């Protein structure tokens, strides 16, 4: 018999990770990022950019009200974000395919640090500015001819790998 939301027996847990959304503007993706972040115990979401569309009515369709439960903030200036990440001593991990990125399975995060996962915009990926301050850059190996996937799908894979290594 299928269980409903109140009957599931999943342990409620928060992990030492925040998600930094580098100029993500598609409302369906924003809502889905709230939903997957709530499901995987993300501490907070930071939206980088101006006029991030956080309209609850539209986001609620994909977030299923999880935007009410995941702390989040918007930072407009990349330098302010960089200062925030450094001040709080985050291990910054960009999820992007680059000439120097390594496969996600090879990610190692110091146990003494919280992680800031940086994910990029739907069009341009992670900006050069945020790539340059990342402690690590990882990619998800793919086996087809396509070289990218939806930002929410990639984030979901990352969060599954990250949290399963901590359980």
- Radius of gyration, Cα only, in angstroms? 16 Å
- Mind telling me which CATH architecture this is? 3-Layer(aba) Sandwich
Give the distance, in angstroms, between the N- and C-terminal Cα atoms.
26 Å
Strand order, main sheet: write it out: 3-2-1-6-4-7-5
Helix content: 25-40%
- Integer average pLDDT: 91
The 3D shape can be described as globular
Structural domains: how many? 1
Largest sheet: 7 strands, parallel
> What count of helical segments does DSSP give?
5
Q: Tell me the name of the CATH class.
A: Alpha Beta
Oligomer: single chain
The count of DSSP E runs of length 2 or more, i.e. the number of strands, is: 7
- CATH fold field value: Alpha/beta knot
User: Which regions have little confidence, pLDDT < 50, spanning 5+ residues?
Assistant: none
Order of helices and strands: EHEHEHEEEHEH
Alpha-beta content class: alpha/beta
Question: What do these coordinates show?
Answer:
The protein is of the alpha/beta class and 167 residues long. The protein has a single domain (17-164), classed as Alpha/beta knot. It contains five helices and seven strands, in the order E-H-E-H-E-H-E-E-E-H-E-H. The chain has helices at residues 27-39, 56-63, 78-87, 128-132, 151-164; strands at residues 17-22, 44-48, 72-75, 91-95, 102-103, 115-120, 136-139. A seven-stranded parallel sheet has the order 3-2-1-6-4-7-5, sandwiched between helices. Helix 1 (27-39) crosses helix 2 and helix 1 packs parallel to helix 5. The radius of gyration is 16 Å and the shape is globular.
């Amino acid at each position: 018999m299928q269980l409903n939301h109140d009957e599931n027996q999943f342990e409620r847990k928060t992990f030492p990770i925040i998600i930094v959304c580098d100029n993500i503007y598609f409302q369906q993706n924003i809502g889905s990022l709230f939903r997957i972040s709530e499901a995987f115990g993300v501490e907070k979401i930071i939206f980088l950019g101006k006029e991030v569309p956080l309209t609850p009515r539209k986001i609620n369709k994909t977030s299923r009200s999880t935007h009410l439960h995941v702390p989040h903030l918007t930072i407009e200036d990349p330098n302010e974000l960089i200062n925030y990440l450094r001040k709080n001593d985050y291990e910054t991990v960009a999820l992007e395919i680059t000439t120097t990125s390594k496969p996600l399975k090879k990610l190692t995060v110091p146990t003494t640090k919280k992680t800031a996962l940086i994910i990029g915009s739907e069009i341009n990926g992670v900006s050069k500015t945020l790539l340059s301050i990342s402690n690590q850059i990882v990619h998800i190996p793919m086996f087809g001819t396509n070289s990218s996937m939806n930002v929410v799908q990639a984030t979901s894979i990352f969060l599954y790998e990250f949290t399963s290594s901590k359980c």
